[in-house]
Amino acid sequence: MAGRPxxxxxxxxxxxxxxxxDYLERRGYELRxxxxxxxxxxxxxxxxxxxxxxxxxxDGGPGMELLRRHSGETGPAxxxxxxxxxLIGKVLALELGAADVVGEPVNPRELATRVGGLMAxxxxxxxxxxxxxxxxxxxxxxxxxHKSGHEEQLSPGQIALLxxxxxxxxxxxxxxDIIAAAPAENSxxxxxxxxxxxxxxxxxxxxxxxxxxxxxxxxxxxxxxxQ
Length: 227
Known about the structure:
By secondary structure, the protein is of the alpha/beta class. Helices cover 38% and strands 22% of the residues.
């Protein structure tokens, strides 16, 4: 997908890189990986990386060297992963231009949020996020992220239905409106009831923002902070 924000995972162990890579890819980022310093150096020199995620070892290590050589206005934003106890190393990394320092163990969801913030501050395309009462929906990744930390996927039909509601806040949509704009998909073949589709979407999003207007249809009332 052209134009996706690009994140490079550099000089990280497979144990650390794999869950981060999997999560960021599901969130819609382009991922590039390099396990060695020479390979990472070449990757960054080629350009196109928006955020570089690398390690901050007690003795500096390759991550610090990459930061020295490639940070700056024309380089990527660096997120350093450290043990959190080396205050001197953290301060040095920030002084050398690191945009953020994250402690271990890394929570992929937290890291993705920090990366998204860096993208926004650099004027890069933001991820398409919808914040509801009890969950956040990543529309590009079709992923629901609940406050509890649980995550689940939305089907293409559910995303189409949610986009329809988002495009018409506070407007009553009839069943015919919904069928025309967000028809049932194959997975709904056993039950094409609009009521059932709405109930499943509400349950998955854990939201009361989609109201049933008896005898008329359905209306999406954005949560308070949207209004």
